[in-house]
Design goal:
The protein is of the alpha/beta class and 503 residues long. Helix content is 49%, strand content 12%.
Length: 503
């Protein structure tokens, strides 16, 4: 498409901010640039009449491409002051063109060197052709800068998303790719939406991946049905018919790769026609691959969790409610880890992967219970010293069982499980077992599970005692902060409980 081709009805206009205290300057600027179209986009003018109002106008129109700025307005240097304020406020992309009727007050050489501006023009002698040339040059520079900024943000999003395989990360990845796609393919439309479903499940509801544009209410649920009816219908039809379709308001591009059916809708009829076909295909294949990888990884995690949950349940059979208790320990452990992550208490240890893995690992905390005689576990009386010693052997038995299940030095959830088995009976003051380690020498995972396990144990009935009320259990744990439990983790526990945790 030629840069000066006819205006497109689907593209937003370039915004031009005119800052001048002379109303005639605003009028003549509009007249001189009327009918100008660049890269299919017309011009839209925004007016401000003082340096102070320039920044306010930018705040209201942050997508402004060019600022025409007079120097002498409410003060002799109001325009130059405004330049500094605009740049210091973070508006680095708009191209600023200084126009002055008194060049002696603000010499061109000084202004160009000392201020971050795109051009300098004297009002006297500024012909329509020179103004046109200056505008086109500034728009081209602005468009290139926006493209670079979009690439930078897209690359940053891809890098941030690449470290995780959860669905939220895939959504962020696709959203960043959509933004890149718009720029690279020069689609022009800022309204895109991508949905998918597995190829083998043609009756399944399409899943929303990502969208760009302002057509969704912030409070609307994120689903395909949140979009206008014609958009949702075209996307469904594209998936059902396995082909690219166009409607009065937009087009849906279809692709099938790696067992995934993908449809990408863009506002504007035939909007994909002028795009680079190779670029389109590479984009679609990569999105399908990302979805397929995430689904495979999710299935692996689900299978792992099912195996570990079953293993933990077999080892921890106080009664028929063991599965529910294990799940409550997992949920509480993850909730406390998430809370600590929010407060940045352990930034070098807690991230999204840790939060996910530590909950699963927590269920294996008493894996060694399978080595304890069933009659001892179900005894309707407190343990004798000898029985207590026998019970404490379950730590070593658990480590041995885990080593048989995962030889070598386990990583991920199994690595945390080993830490938890070995350390969740240690006390923060060093009076626990089996090794008597203290403080932060006890792994964080084990310190978390120590609190979670204590709360679930206190609020669960045992053969030799009834369950405590939640408030009493919370008070008991709080009283042992600094002795039995890590005070930092107890604080996170109290905040989680205050937040209504019910497990």
């Amino acid at each position: 498409m030629n840069d000066l081709s006819p205006m497109s009805n689907t593209l937003a206009p370039w915004k031009i901010l005119v800052v001048d205290d002379d109303a005639d300057v605003h009028t003549t600027t509009r007249l001189a640039l009327r009918g100008v179209v660049f890269r299919g986009r017309a011009l839209e003018f925004v007016d401000a009449y003082s340096g102070k109002d320039a920044l306010l106008a930018l705040q209201e129109h942050p997508d402004t491409a060019i600022v025409f700025l007079d120097v002498i307005m409410e003060t002799e240097d109001a325009g130059l002051v405004a330049v500094r304020q605009i740049r210091e406020s973070g508006y680095t992309l708009p191209r600023i063109i200084v126009r002055t009727g008194f060049p002696g007050q603000a010499p061109e050489r000084t202004v160009i060197v000392d201020y971050d501006i795109h051009d300098y023009k004297e009002k006297t002698g500024l012909s329509v052709q020179k103004l046109f040339t200056s505008v086109i040059s500034a728009l081209r520079a602005y468009d290139d800068l926006v493209a670079l900024e979009n690439h930078r943000r897209g690359l940053l999003s891809v890098l941030e998303s690449g470290s995780s395989f959860d669905f939220n990360a895939v959504q962020r990845y696709v959203a960043s790719m959509l933004a890149e796609f718009v720029t690279l393919a020069r689609l022009g439309s800022a309204k895109l939406v991508a949905v998918y479903r597995p190829t083998a499940r043609a009756v399944e509801r399409p899943t929303l991946l990502a969208s760009l544009g302002d057509w969704l209410d912030a409070a609307a649920p994120l689903s395909i049905d949140s979009f206008p009816a014609q958009v949702a219908t075209l996307l469904r039809d594209s998936l059902d018919q396995a082909q690219t379709l166009s409607g009065p308001e937009g087009s849906a591009l279809f692709s099938r790769h790696h067992g995934v059916d993908l449809a990408v809708y863009a506002a504007g009829r035939d909007v994909f026609v002028g795009a680079d076909e190779v670029l389109l295909e590479v984009f679609l294949i990569n999105v399908c691959q990302a979805i397929s990888n995430q689904r495979t990884f999710a299935d692996m995690v689900s299978d792992r969790d099912a195996v570990l949950h079953g293993l933990a349940w077999r080892a921890d059979h106080w009664d028929g409610s063991a599965a529910a208790s294990l799940q409550r320990i997992a949920s509480l452990t993850s909730a406390m880890a998430a809370r600590l992550n929010t407060t940045l208490s352990f930034p070098d240890e807690i991230d999204r992967t840790f939060i996910s893995n530590v909950g699963v690992a927590a269920m294996l905390h008493d894996l060694g219970n399978q080595s304890i005689p069933a009659g001892l576990l179900s005894a309707h009386r407190p343990f004798s010293p000898a029985e207590r010693g026998l019970m404490e052997t379950h730590v070593a038995a658990g480590i041995k069982a885990l080593s048989a299940f995962s030889p070598g030095r386990p990583a991920g959830a199994l690595g945390l499980a080993r830490e938890i088995i070995a350390g969740h009976h240690e006390w923060f003051d060093g009076s626990g077992y089996p090794s008597g380690v203290r403080g932060e020498a006890i792994p964080l995972s084990a310190r978390l599970v120590a609190v979670a396990d204590a709360f679930i144990a206190l609020t669960s009935a045992r053969p030799h005692r009834p369950a405590l009320e939640a408030a009493a259990a919370v008070a008991a744990i709080s009283a042992e902060a600094g002795s039995h439990f890590d005070p930092c983790i107890v604080e996170a526990f109290l905040e989680v409980m205050d937040g209504g945790f019910c497990g």
